[in-house]
Write a structure and sequence with these properties.
The complex is a heterodimer of chains A (216) and B (770). Chain A has 216 residues and is mainly alpha-helical. Chain A is built from twelve helices and four strands, in the order αααβαααβααβααβαα. Chain B is an all-alpha fold and 770 residues long. In chain B, helix 17 runs antiparallel to helix 18. Mean pLDDT of chain B is 66; it is low at 1-34, 547-569, 578-606 and 622-770. Among the domains of chain B are: 92-460, Up-down Bundle (Na+/H+ antiporter like fold); 472-516, no CATH class. The radius of gyration of chain B is 31 Å and the shape is globular. Classes of the chains: A mainly alpha (216), B mainly alpha (770). The interface between A and B is large, with 80 and 79 residues. Chain A: Residues 112-147 form the EF-hand domain. Chain A: Belongs to the calcineurin regulatory subunit family. CHP subfamily.
Chain lengths: 216, 770
């Protein structure tokens, strides 16, 4: 592990590695990236993210950026947003995207899955009340569709409505006519996506390569 | 059989006396036109000229016979569960071959290698390429190519060398086969053709990765095998092999593969571009698909590059753009015809395999053949093991042992091996032995492995996958994930598959679509799915009207029945079961919005929806919602589509139906009571008057079945006609349930069913069709 000699703050790394499951090299790579994004400062702010060109074209960039500043993703049971994050939080958020290692037990796999789905859920649930309401869902759908040209808001609304109805039916089953469906709770969300192979979809292969030369 | 028919027909020839003569004009002679010598200049009333039609006639009869066999299998449907169709076909072929052999008749000489490679194989490959599920394919493309190329190489070289080693043993008497010939033979038998296995995989719904790897491997290793075969047959004729030849071989391999792909993409784009202009000549639209792919195949054959790769890439490229350009009917036609042709082709091949098995002269050599079998098995197993170990670290979901077993055991041999064996040059001394060995391997693998794979797969419980993913939510989340991943990758500064996919999609949207698609409005897949589901919803009402109503007494009240108004989720399941009897399929990407496509009458669609929603509402009314202002959208209603949605999708000139301007409100106002009744009364007598009565709907307007309407072009707006048309186009649509009403029970359906694809046999990742 020759690369370690050059990376500063090694004890910090082992702490992080424990916490997030990344390897030392991966943390090193992420650190480099962090420093590059933050222009060698200690913390990242939203503006730093806004500078990334490729991200600008992404329809849900706001959500993605917000996800980094959302305390709920820091695994510390916090809530609300922060204005700036340090390297540790950066890595913790990134750890949501780690591929499942081959030696996981069923339990660990389930836990990882929950974590990833929780991340997604937090992306939807912007007001932190633990429920995705129709408005929030609509917002997501609108954002998603905002790139595909000439859609009206109405279509997005319809789609979001349809989706909510679906969720309602799956989670709650038959509803009495006077009942409302409050919104998607995390449990419903889990149930909705239980067949969704999120482990394969939500992973990034954090290759151990020197990325500083590749980005802009 | 031909003779039998001939004999039969002869007996039926009436002998008609002509006015001036008493002699019959036809003598029973091989059907050749005859006159009695002393009959001069008399007009023959009845003649027969068999040789003229002989070849097409025989071909037709063979095709018919094979198709009858296929019909026969499904009489007792359990047979096809346990015995794959290819086995059955081969067995029938064997029987027919035995019959023919006993009457000393020769099999038709039409099955030459040319016929196979120029006519039959392209059809099969086109079907595979066209119906390949693209998303999983591209996600697993590395693995697929890895197994196809390296795996096939491994197999052929391994088997070849081991067989050569066996040949050295004097006891088997095959010492005259040299290394090149062995390699040639092993190239032939390493071509995997898991048709039977794919059917089983689909029925059992094994996990997607396994399926797509087996499927892709089969497709692409045909290409590799043909290349190897050509290479080795060239080499086999050379007395000495130099190392430089090996390098040339490798170079040639790359040229062949990449060249094939290049040709395919080129032709695909040309085809897509052509279809951009075919809006006036709808009838020949399907032709372009076939002609261009076939052209790609032939041109690749011309340059001796991999024609299979060419046709596959052509189909892949073409499909996406063509399906947006052509009409719904053309699309259905294309799919149907591809399926039909491929099915015939495959049926014929297996059938002939059976026939030829009996009728050729075999040279049997116990040692060689048994060892061939053994090595084929062993090397495949080893190959899969080793290759999986190497590639697993690169995969997101690694293959476990069970998957590997499925992969290895699913390595059946089939049509391509058979054809290649027959095209062996005669200069090879032991050609008959090779042919026999190939047939033996094919029969063995198809029968033994084909029959046993299903119980085995179920026994070892290979990881399954859920295929009911065609719901809005999942689609939304898929897209969300993709964007998120692309974003995160940008953040990390890493270039991985999402990045490339994103880049490609941007390129696609910005450039390609503008060129190749007639009206290139970039449409999100979410919207496409949504439209499709709504369309299915719309068709559902016709379905329930024309379907088997009596079987579901507690069905949601329809216009034509007086059932009780209440409905439950369970009823919907019943309905769905009924509906699933009529299985329809509509296109995956529904509508390419064509601004200038004049719809003669789109009111029918609205009528469908209105009626449907009316019935739903009627059933709900006793318990309907009290208030029309919803506190903060906690309530979910049927999907309100605003005016804008309608005018969006209406052709601007279409304001003839001013109904388009009906303002739509949320469900729940009691005012609707009279209107729906009026609606229902009128619905049986149809007509456009329906629309006038309705002042408020919270319909989800169908966003837009232009497709639907274009197929209704020549119908007037009566419900009966609608129903008729619907039945005609029955093959096109899938009845499916979707939430369009407040009651959540409705929404339960999409989870349970998906668009069933009766048309798609192997490649489509779909639940049980048929």
């Amino acid at each position: 592990m020759g690369a370690l000699q050059s990376s500063p703050g090694r004890p910090e790394y082992s702490d992080l590695a424990e916490k997030t499951g990344f390897s030392f090299e991966q943390i090193g790579v992420l650190h480099k990236r962090f420093k590059q994004l933050s222009h060698n400062e200690e913390t990242l702010r939203r503006d730093n993210f806004n500078e990334i060109n490729d991200l600008a074209l992404n329809p849900i960039r706001t959500q993605i950026i917000e996800a980094f500043f959302d305390r709920r993703n820091f695994h510390q049971n916090g809530e609300g947003k922060v204005q700036e994050i340090g390297f540790e939080e950066f890595v913790v958020v990134m750890s949501h995207f780690r591929p499942p290692s081959a030696h996981m037990t069923e339990e660990q796999r389930g836990k990882t899955r929950r974590e990833k789905l929780r991340f997604l859920f937090n992306m939807h649930d912007t007001d932190n009340d633990g429920i995705i309401t129709l408005e929030e869902y609509r917002h997501v759908v609108e954002e998603l569709l905002s790139r595909s040209g000439t859609l009206e808001k109405e279509t997005a609304k319809c789609i979001a409505d349809a989706a909510m109805l679906e969720v309602a039916s799956i989670s709650v089953g038959h509803m009495e006519p006077d009942e409302f469906y409050e919104g998607i709770t995390f449990e419903h969300f889990l149930k909705l996506l239980e067949r969704f192979e999120i482990e394969s979809k939500m992973t990034i292969r954090f290759l151990n390569m020197d990325t500083t030369t590749l980005c802009k | 059989m031909i003779l039998i028919l001939l004999h039969g027909s002869r007996g039926e020839i009436p002998s008609k006396p002509i006015a001036a003569t008493i002699l019959p004009t036809v003598k029973p002679n091989d059907g050749v036109q005859t006159y009695a010598e002393d009959q001069k200049n008399n007009l023959p009333v009845f003649t027969m000229n068999y040789p003229r039609i002989q070849i097409p006639f025989e071909i037709t009869l063979w095709v018919l016979l094979a198709s009858f066999a296929k019909i026969g299998f499904h009489v007792y449907h359990k047979i096809t569960i346990w015995v794959p169709e290819s086995c059955l076909l081969i067995s029938i072929g064997l029987i027919v071959g035995a019959i023919m052999h006993s009457v000393h008749e020769e099999p038709p000489a039409v099955l030459t290698s040319n016929v196979f490679f120029l006519y039959m194989l392209p059809l099969i490959v086109l079907e595979s390429g066209y119906f390949m599920p693209t998303r999983p394919f591209f996600e697993n493309i590395g693995t697929v190519f890895w197994f196809a190329v390296v795996g096939t190489l491994w197999n052929s070289i391994g088997i070849g060398i081991s067989l050569f080693a066996i040949c050295q043993i004097p006891a088997f008497g095959v010492q005259d086969i040299n290394l090149q010939e062995n390699l040639l033979f092993s190239a032939i038998i390493s071509a995997v053709d898991p048709v039977a296995v794919l059917n089983v995989f689909e029925d059992v719904s094994v996990n997607e990765q396994l399926y797509i790897v087996v499927f892709g491997e089969c497709l692409f290793n045909d290409a590799v095998t043909v290349v190897l075969y050509n290479m080795f047959s060239f080499v086999a004729e050379m007395p000495v092999v130099e190392p430089v030849d090996v390098f040339i071989g490798v170079a040639r391999f790359f040229i062949v593969g990449l060249g094939g792909m290049a040709f395919g993409i080129l032709f695909g784009f040309v085809a897509a571009f052509t279809t951009r202009f075919t809006s006036k000549v709808r009838e020949i639209e399907p032709l372009f698909v076939f002609m261009y792919s076939y052209l790609a195949y032939l041109v690749a054959e011309l340059f001796a590059i991999s024609s299979i790769m060419a046709i596959i890439t052509c189909a892949l490229t073409m499909k996406y753009y063509v399906e947006e350009n052509v009409s719904q009917r053309s699309c259905t036609t294309i799919r149907h015809v591809i399926k039909m042709l491929a099915s015939i082709s495959e049926t014929l091949i297996f059938f002939f395999l059976g026939v030829v098995t009996i009728t050729t002269d075999h040279e049997w050599n116990w040692g060689y053949i048994l060892f061939t079998l053994l090595f084929a098995f062993v090397w495949r197993g080893l190959g899969i093991l080793v290759l999986t170990q190497i590639i697993n670290p690169f995969r997101t979901i690694p293959f476990n042992m069970k998957d590997q077993f499925g992969l290895a055991y699913g390595g059946l041999r089939g049509a391509v091996s058979f054809a290649l064996a027959f095209t062996l040059p005669d200069t090879i001394g032991r050609k008959q032995l090779f042919v026999t060995a190939t047939i033996a391997v094919i029969l063995f693998t198809v029968f033994l492995q084909g029959i046993s794979i299903r119980p085995l797969i179920e026994f070892i419980n290979v990881r399954r996958t859920n295929r009911n993913l065609e719901t809005i939510n999942v689609e939304i989340h898929c897209r969300l994930m993709e964007h998120t991943m692309a974003g995160i990758e940008d953040l990390c500064g890493q270039w991985s598959r999402f990045y490339w996919k994103d880049k490609f999609m941007k390129f696609n949207n910005r450039i390609l679509r503008k060129i190749l698609i007639r009206d290139s409005r970039a449409e999100s897949s979410i919207v496409a799915l949504y439209k499709k589901l709504e369309l299915q919803n719309a068709m559902e009402i016709l379905d329930t009207a024309s379907g088997d109503i009596s079987a579901a007494p507690s069905i949601v009240s329809l216009s034509y029945t007086k059932c009780r108004k209440k409905f439950l989720a369970a009823d919907l399941r019943n309905i769905h079961d009924i509906l699933s009897k009529n299985m329809y399929k509509i296109r995956e990407r529904t509508v390419a919005y064509r601004g200038k496509h004049a719809l003669p009458n789109d009111s029918q669609t609205r009528e469908i929806l209105i009626r449907r929603h009316a019935t739903i509402r009627r059933s709900l009314r006793p318990r309907s919602f009290q208030s029309s202002n919803v506190p903060r959208t906690h309530k979910y209603f049927s999907l309100p589509a605003g005016k804008s949605l309608e005018s969006r999708f209406d052709a601007p000139a279409r304001s003839s139906s001013s109904k388009a301007m009906i303002p739509l409100h949320r469900l729940g106002t009691l005012e609707e009571v009279p209107s729906t009744d009026v609606l229902n009364e009128e619905s049986s007598s149809t007509g456009e008057g329906v629309f006038r009565t309705n002042s408020s709907y919270s319909d989800s307007r169908v966003p837009h079945p232009r497709r639907l309407n274009s197929s209704f072009d020549d119908n007037n707006s009566s419900v009966d006609d609608l129903r008729n048309v619907h039945e005609e186009d029955g093959a096109e649509q899938v009845g499916q349930r979707q939430p369009a009403s407040p009651a959540p029970g409705w929404a339960a359906e999409p989870r349970e069913t998906t668009a069933r694809n009766p048309l798609l046999r192997r490649p489509q990742w779909n639940p049980k069709k048929k």
